[in-house]
Amino acid sequence: MGPVKIHFLKHVIRMLGINGIEAVHGRVEAFGKDPDFAGRFDGVLARGLANLERLADLADQFLTPGAILFALKSPGAREEITRNLENRFAIAWDEYRLSDDGERRCLARLTPRHKKKFLNNRRLFRNFLIGLSSMS
Question: What does the pLDDT read at residue 115?
Fold first, then answer.
């Protein structure tokens, strides 16, 4: 996420008074080399980073058991779902419209099948949520 977006997320966290959550700005390639980030996140959020297969490959290393990869995508992104992706992740898909211009968008939620599932919503917001972006 760019600096403006990360500042917005930090502002939202402060305004909502959420404790134990941190918005982190950086490149996925750099985080992937840092062992402190491996398997530590209950949620990974990405928008416009890569197709779902590539995004899943990038994000999986950061997910705790039961975590969710949230991918904001265009409606046509359903075509990105491969058999390999379906084998690796349980995939849920929500469609919505933007309020300002009515444009359609989708939220894909990918939960790894190979990791034990024990996530609950309260834990998601108490722990870290990392935003990944292709921006420097």
Answer: 60
